[in-house]
Backbone:
């Protein structure tokens, strides 16, 4: 099953977003819970302080009044605040309970729902107490002069209800937005991938006969490298197809001539009653077959060596020894034209590469030099070692090649005016292909002997 980019992005983005949202909601909840608790404690403290200030004032007035009337107890019968104090705390009647204790431990004031026992054993500060089966948050405050103690309490469950309410308000938008967010991500990724769909449509409309590059105008920035890579591939394919078309056409043309000549010679042999003439015609047939075989061999070698996907089987070998073998192979050709062929090098010259392929390269160059060198001419093969850079020089005393035509001689089936010199026009194309797969540099120049000088640069195996 092919992976889906849209599904993969959804599986990455949605959990990540949910995790961030839930983490943020949790942190907000924890912070809000802390703030609510702090606010509630501050409320208790302020309420206790306000009660203490008001009750202290009431206590002194009541005490003066009782002293003047000769009464002993102060606020003894008081169980509720005076009306103006009740109005002050009416907003907290459902959530707060309070008590007031004298310094002798006498309860002189409490709210209706407050018990008659102390809410907390502390005289000052906060504490959590279990009162009537419920947990309460209690704040106690003592008057430094009268030693009266005021205790105010709030039920903890009410704080938890408020905290839960806030948590629901925080989490509810997350739960509602999650499906919407998933759909938006799905839809957004789909729209973002439409340029890729359009590119796929353009590529599918291409054919081997029409490999036009894709238009990069309006292509998304992220997709542009892909389009440029496709265009580069299309250019290489077009060049490869064009090269193969030329190769096929040229090969068909080159093979047509020797095959037609063979047919003619066979027809002549069949009609010739004279044995000697028939034998001459058959000998020409054999020569034609040899030329056609050579051409086919060269075509197969050229087709087999592709610089884009062929990697040479590299090994270390002696280039001087290989050159000597190639000269020995071509010695009969050179002797037939009375050509003086020589090899000049100092000691062993080790290079890296495919020995078989470089053997074809050197053989083709020496054969080409012998073909173009007139009788009684000279061919010199020289190998130099310049501080790790190996230079192979092959010079001849032939007619040479004008500077403007030197690059064209590597083209397939290219032939200059050369009289009756045999050949397929593929030797130097093979040389160039082998040089490309080995990353070798080739230079063409005028030979000191007056003909063509081919110089090839190789890397020493010793470096």
Residues:
């Amino acid at each position: 099953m092919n992976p889906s980019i849209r599904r993969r992005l959804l599986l990455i983005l949605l959990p990540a977003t949910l995790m961030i949202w839930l983490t943020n909601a949790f942190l907000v909840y924890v912070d809000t819970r802390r703030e609510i608790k702090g606010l509630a404690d501050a409320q208790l403290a302020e309420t206790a302080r306000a009660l203490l200030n008001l009750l202290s004032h009431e206590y002194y007035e009541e005490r003066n009044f009782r002293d003047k009337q000769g009464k002993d107890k102060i606020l003894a019968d008081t169980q509720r605040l005076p009306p103006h104090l009740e109005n002050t705390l009416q907003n907290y009647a459902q959530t707060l309970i309070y008590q007031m204790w004298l310094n002798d431990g006498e309860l002189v004031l409490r709210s209706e729902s407050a018990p008659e026992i102390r809410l907390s054993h502390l005289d000052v500060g906060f504490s959590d107490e279990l009162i009537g089966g419920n947990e309460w948050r209690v704040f106690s405050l003592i008057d430094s002069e009268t030693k009266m103690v005021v205790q105010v309490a709030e039920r903890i469950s009410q704080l938890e209800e408020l905290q839960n309410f806030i948590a629901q308000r925080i989490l509810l938008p997350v739960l509602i937005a999650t499906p919407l967010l998933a759909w938006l991500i799905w839809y957004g990724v789909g729209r973002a991938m439409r340029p890729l769909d359009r590119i796929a449509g353009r590529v599918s409309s291409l054919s081997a006969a029409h490999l036009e590059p894709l238009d990069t105008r309006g292509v998304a920035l992220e997709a542009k490298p892909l389009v440029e890579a496709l265009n580069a591939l299309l250019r290489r394919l077009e060049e490869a197809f064009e090269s193969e078309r030329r190769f096929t056409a040229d090969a068909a043309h080159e093979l047509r001539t020797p095959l037609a000549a063979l047919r003619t010679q066979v027809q002549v042999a069949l009609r010739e009653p004279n044995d000697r003439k028939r034998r001459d015609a058959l000998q020409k047939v054999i020569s034609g077959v040899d030329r056609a075989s050579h051409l086919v061999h060269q075509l197969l070698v050229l087709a087999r060596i592709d610089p884009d996907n062929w990697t040479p089987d590299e090994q270390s070998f002696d280039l001087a020894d290989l050159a000597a073998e190639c000269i020995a192979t071509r010695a009969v050709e050179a002797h037939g034209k009375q050509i003086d062929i020589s090899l000049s090098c100092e000691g062993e010259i080790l290079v890296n590469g495919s020995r078989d392929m470089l053997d074809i390269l050197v053989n083709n160059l020496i054969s080409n030099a012998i073909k173009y060198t007139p009788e009684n001419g000279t061919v010199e093969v020289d190998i130099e070692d310049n501080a790790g850079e190996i230079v192979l020089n092959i010079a001849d005393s032939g007619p040479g090649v004008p500077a403007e035509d030197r690059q064209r001689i590597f083209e397939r089936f290219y032939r200059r005016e050369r009289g009756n010199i045999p050949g397929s026009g593929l030797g130097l194309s093979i040389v160039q292909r082998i040089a490309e797969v080995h990353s070798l540099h080739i230079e063409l120049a005028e030979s000191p002997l007056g003909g063509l000088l081919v110089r090839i640069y190789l890397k020493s195996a010793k470096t």
